[in-house]
Design brief:
Elements lengths: L2 H63 L4 H16 L3 H22 L3 H4 L2 H36 L3 H4 L28
Amino acid sequence: MGTAVWVAIIVVVALVLLLALYLWVTYNSLVTLRSRVDEAWKDISVQLQRRAELIPPLLDAIRDNAAHERSVFEAVTAARDESIAAASPADASVAENHMQQALKSTFAVAESFPQLMASPGFLQMQGDLVDSENKIQASRRFYNGGVREFNTRIQVFPNNVFAKRLGFGSREFFEAAEVAAISEPPRVQF
C-alpha cells in the first residue's frame, strides 16, 4: 500500500474518532443539562409544597375572624389542591395563576379585621408566605434558565440531527398564563 492510502485511512479514522468524541461530549452535556432541569423542577415542587403547608394555618387564622367568607376559603383550598396535584410545568402554571388569585381574595378579606392584622402569629405566617413566594419565583427563574439552555442545546445544528434519536426532547417552561398575576408575590402587607 502506498502512502496515499495510509494517509486516507488515518484521515478517515481521525474523522470517525472526532465524530465519536463530539457525540460523547455532546451526549454527556445534554444528560447534565437534563439532570439540572429535573433538579430545578423538583426544587419548584418542594417550594410549592412548602407554600401549600403554610396555607391551612393561615386560613384557620382568617376563618376565626371571617367565617362568613366561605367561598374565599373554598377557592384557596381548591387552588392549594390543584397546586399540589400539578405534575407538569403547564399544570403548575395554571395552578399558580389560580393560587395567586385566591390568595389576593383571601388577603383582601383579612384586611377587614384589624385585630387579625395585628396578631403576631398572623404576621409570622404572612412573612413565611412572602418568603415562600419569593423562593418559588427564584426557583422558577432557575428552572426556566435551565430549560432555555437545554432546549437551545438540542435545537442547534448539528445537535438537532441526533438529539431526538438519543431521547432528548424539549422541555416546557414554567410560565404563567397571566404574567401580571405572578410578576410579584401577593401583597400581604397589613
